[in-house]
Amino acid sequence: MIEANLPVLLIVIPMITAPLCVLAGRGRIAYAMSLLASVLVFAIAVALVIKVGDSGTIRYELGGWEPPYGIEYVVDRLSSFMAMFVSALGMIVLFYAPHSVNKEIQPSKHYLFYATYLLCMTGLLGICVTGDLFNVFVFLEISSLSSYALISLGRTRRAPLSALQYLIVGSIGATFILIGIGLLYQMTGTLNMADIASRIDTIDGPRTIMVAFAFLTVGLCVKMAVFPLHTWLPGAYTYAPSVVTCFIAATATKVSVYAFIRLVYGIMTPKFAFELLPLDSALMVFSLIGIFVASTAAVFQDDVKRLLAYSSVAQIGYMLLGVSMSNIDGLTAGIVHMFNHALIKGGLFMVAGCFILRLGSSRLSDWAGAGRTMPWTGFAWAIGGLGLIGVPMTAGFISKWLLLTAAMQNGWWPVAALMLLSSLLAVAYVWKVVETLYFSEPSDAVVASTEAPAGMLIPTYAIIGCVVLFGIWTTYSAGLAAAAAAELLGATP
Amino acid sequence: MTDPVNLIVLSLVLPLVAFVMNFVLGNRPNARECSTVVIATILFGVVGLLASSVFDGQRPELFVSEMLPGFSIAFSVEPLGMIFALVASGLWILTTIYGAGYMRGHHEKHQTRFFGCFALAIFAAIAAAFSSNLFTMFVAYELMTVSTYPLVTHHGTAEAKSGGRIYLGILLSTSIAFFMMAIAWTWSLCGTLDFKQGGILNVPYEAGEISTLALGVLLGLFAFGIGKAALMPMHRWLPAAMVAPTPVSALLHAVAVVKVGVFSLLKVVVYIFGIDLLQATGVNLWLAYVAGFTIVVASIIAMTKDNLKARLAYSTIGQLAYISLGAALATPDSVIGGGMHIVMHAVGKITLFFCAGAIYVAAHKKNISDMAGLGRQMPWTFGAFLVASVSIIGLPPGGGAWSKWFLAVGTAETHQYALTAALMISSLLNIAYLVPIPIQAFLKPRPDRDSNHDSDHSHDHGEAPLACVIPLVITATLSIVLFFAAEPIYQALLPIVSE
């Protein structure tokens, strides 16, 4: 009974727990409930990965209604992999949360915070498992609306403003997506992704379809924060509460990339996307420009959260570069980089959260010399930073290496060279922080600071440890990603 | 236990044990250093045992894991790597003893971190030495860069920061931008990255998949991507790294770090390109001239440096280019000469750095112009300096004479007489910048007043601490011994250039 309903439990548990948190009305109870829910969700996701690995794609008819009348959940290798790492990060960030939340968010709002956090997770997980295009839109809005709310909880008055900016840009993106879905529905008469895919070929005159895909692509690009549609991201990441930034930075944009991969490989088919529409060259150009512009911008930031935010925009470029290669190696690289980068960036934002907790500021100039008074936190930054650069023995190296060899196999020499050059910019912005942490004279505030609490350090090191672990042992990162990529390219539904 | 494969495992694990022991025994310095010396000695023994089977013709292999499909971490021991591992592990013992004396004599902080990172760097050196494919070598190479960064910036001053920035900046960016590119390119051509006797690139070349010009470009990517080989213009990191405490400069920047660079280059030339392919296409000659240029220019710059460590740094750049030259000429003799020079230069240069550190600990002198007359107070130190200089210059009875001989033969065989001349000029320049230092220390009188000197030390400070003097006397002796014992090294290296 439970086993058969695992796909829907993944969504239902956090969705039901969220209003329960509100009903509880107390921060601590809400925290305990949401922690429990996140652990359960993670366990379900792991069970799904195993089950899909053993017996192949799971199709689940919601409420027993057959598609195309009802909503269908489809859990294949890629979606179970995504659900696993989204829920894993959601769980670990929750373990990390209490100290930071106590400091940064008013106690009276704690229960609302946890409820919204769970809703956001619901939305993200929903996108991963649903097989219905309109349902994707619904879950996207659930996650987006809850993240607007989460971001506006930040300490400064800039937070609501950034949330509003994100709301406006994000809603425009959502509108584009909705228009795209509407056009597809008009042409195919179905909202089930597999159905749409099977009917696309039969229609004469693909102009409307092309317009539909253009709308969908642009809308998703806003959500993915692809350059030049990334403007909402730096502000949102910078002014959101630290815990929110950790979670959203690690998961939200990646889930949008996932939705995009589904769109390209599950609905459009690569032939349509890359031959009829020049999506591959368009993506490649925007990815590369984005990588360079955003990395350069990151080098010049003083606010560490903003620095990491720009770095995220650049890293999205690497993922899309992989996706746009439309061969199995490139796609593997893109998928595995979602996972690896989620670990790395999540870990680094957690480190930043530790510093912010103790030093009360996210400005690099206020962190001068803090590596000496907070050695564990500082060391975690160094390891995570090496991962971001892509030094061997870290997860970042694996994805960079795969991407590089994929580019070589495609004969994309300039792309390979530019990719390597761009990672030098990562050296610059990571090491800028390392130098400030270890070589600058500490201020009085820094001298008075103490090491971050174990409650935050342990989850941080769990993630940072994974950055190293998945740099050495890739069975469950690159291995699963390669299997997912093969499935996408081989048997597109 | 003496199964060669077990020995490989042991020699990789032991430095990691030393790394862990350092932190376990962190607050008991005597126990900490003793454990390192003991482990280093065991390591040397293990590597020695391994050497005896490798020089008998065995090629033990150890497969660790496949990190990505086609890219595995695996080790196999061949003579070149064996010799490099012997040098690195043997000198590690002496450097630890020396380092203990130096760091305490100098009241340095963070000694635990220091010796810990040191052990990690040795691990990287051994891993690179035994690597059986380019991928493993690259991983070890980068681990070496990262693990030595805290050593270079040990003092935590603004100077250390900017030195560290150049160090990491050049080494990381060359390896990411060029070395990694070259490896990926090789992979896309050959579908393998394994080191193979006779090279692997001849297959795609003969199949017409890579043009002669592109082969030259690939060689360039390797040569400049391996920034640790310090070919000009990628040499700036080496002088910058001299902000490190002297034991670091001694082991890492005379032996481990720089030798990983030239060793990798030699290995790429011999086992990836294959010397036959390079000889047939001639794409290597331009690199030989870059090396020749580096040899001469680095020696000239060395003459202008008054700071002893800076002078030694530029001398190292020049001497490394000897080995790069050996690789670039790609004749059997030149490759053997390059391989031998890894040993000879390591022993000679570590002696010179030990001496520089000893002078600094005892007399607090950094500049050569202040060292006049010190020889009578520190006869062992300056005596060793003179002996090691002879080896570096390449005069008998110093070990360096042999390696230089084979390199010169290599230049003559390929009829590149300009390069022969470069070697000879370099020898003269070496005499000019090394020999005056001990000479003026012994023969010139001491100046009456010296300005930058505190009163405690202005009188007879005598020799450096015993822990500093003993290692440098041993290494100086070794550089003479190697002159008479060069035959085994030659015999050991012979198999790598003959089918």
Question: What portion of residues of chain A is helical?
Answer: over 70%
Instruction: Round the Cα radius of gyration of chain B to an integer and report it.
Output: 22 Å
Please, what is the average pLDDT of chain B?
87
Distance between the termini of chain B: 31 Å
- Average pLDDT level of chain A: 90
From the spread of the alpha carbons, the general shape of chain B counts as globular
Number of alpha- plus pi-helical segments of chain B: 20
Provide the low-confidence segments of chain A as ranges.
none
How many beta-strand elements of chain B? 2
Describe this protein's structure.
The complex is a heterodimer of chains A (493) and B (499). Chain A is mainly alpha-helical. Chain A has a domain at 282-493. Chain A has helices spanning 6-24, 27-55, 77-104, 110-129, 133-152, 158-188, 193-200, 207-224, 232-239, 242-268, 270-276, 279-299, 304-324, 328-359, 370-373, 375-389, 395-409, 413-439, 444-448, 454-472, 475-490, and strands spanning 58-61, 72-75. Chain A is globular, with a radius of gyration of 21 Å. Chain B is an all-alpha fold and 499 residues long. Chain B has 20 helices and two strands. The longest helix of chain B has 33 residues, at 158-190. The relative contact order of chain B is 0.10. The model of chain B is unreliable at 453-458 (pLDDT under 50). The chains are: A mainly alpha (493), B mainly alpha (499). At the A-B interface, helix 17 and helix 18 of A face strand 1, helix 5 and helix 6 of B. Chain A: One of its GO terms (cellular component) is plasma membrane.
